[in-house]
Amino acid sequence: MRIGVVTFPGSLDDRDAARAIRLAGADAVALWHGDHDLHGVDALVLPGGFSYGDYLRAGAIASLSPIMTEVIDAANKGMPVLGICNGFQMLTEAHLLDGGLIRNDKGRFICRDQGLRIENNASDWTAGFSANAEIVIPLKNGEGSFMASAETLTALEGEGRIVARYIGGNPNGSLNDIAGVTNARGNVVGLMPHPEHAVEAGFGPDTDTAMASGVDGLVFFTSVITQALIAR
Amino acid sequence: MPTIVVEVMPKAELLDPQGKAVAGALGRLGQTQSALANVTGVRVGKRFEISIDGEADAATLAAVRELADTVLSNSVIEDVVGIHVQNAPSAAVV
């Protein structure tokens, strides 16, 4: 399986995302924001970072990039797309996901290992988790507070489209402790925390058994590979 | 040469952490400057000044209105609170 990672001006975590994809067992394909070409990939990751310096709104300018025409088209046809952090912001700005992200309620950039509960294990990117799995992956952002109208929130909750919820305290003021959501089809997922930073023992969050041994993030990437094999 | 001004504010019902931080600083100043003591809140928004060639006619204004709603603001978190024409870019207030 070939999974594309789009690099935008100001992307930071594209290389980490590509590494996570390789560790999960797929080929990572580097894609460029200025192209109109997805190079025949089977799935896409929009990585974290600060595209265009968060000017206008986080993810807003990147969501108007040339390649986003192809990304939106592919997503609407069912291609798995994962937006992490800035990538999640882009997906909301591109109207592929509901809601929006604003500054953290305490006005501070937050960087820490964060507990999450995976509440939807039917999406393309979370199918490998057990129901209500509790995981720890890094969270690092300044504009991660998830907002949506009451109507949208009711729909997200009612349709089981909350993919991940913060546990152990709400870090940023997100409504209903929302850390990630999916679309109705379950192929597009946005996450504020960073699974790609918890994929290799020695470099992940601490666990009860050993320092830096947390690899909970890898499951997002293995999930999409398994889903593709099932679909085939 | 006219300038079209578009003003965008965070939605009133959403938290505005930036405004809150500024209000906090003004509150501290208010302890020493009595004129600031009655400030009760601050909200921070954005102002865009769009320079155009020629007339700011109805078609141009309609296009800017569209731009304001789709690009300059995100209706999930912000409202466009004003669009108006002025005849030159803003100079500093003296």
**Strand adjacency order, main sheet of chain A:** 2-1-3-4-11-10-9-6-7
Range of helix content of chain A: 10-25%
Q: The CATH topology of chain A is what?
A: Rossmann fold
The CATH architecture of chain B can be named as 2-Layer Sandwich
Largest interface: A-B, 21 and 13 residues
Low-confidence stretches of chain A: none
For the biggest sheet of chain A, the summary is: 9 strands, mixed
What is the CA-based Rg of chain B, rounded?
17 Å
Mean pLDDT across residues of chain A = 97
What would CATH call the class of chain B? Alpha Beta
Overall, the morphology of chain A is: globular
Mean pLDDT of chain B: 90
Number of helices of chain A: 5
- What is the terminal-to-terminal distance of chain B? 22 Å
Radius of gyration of chain A: 16 Å
| Measured distance between first and last alpha carbons of chain A | 11 Å
**Which range does the strand content of chain A fall in?**
25-35%
Number of spatially distinct domains of chain A: 1
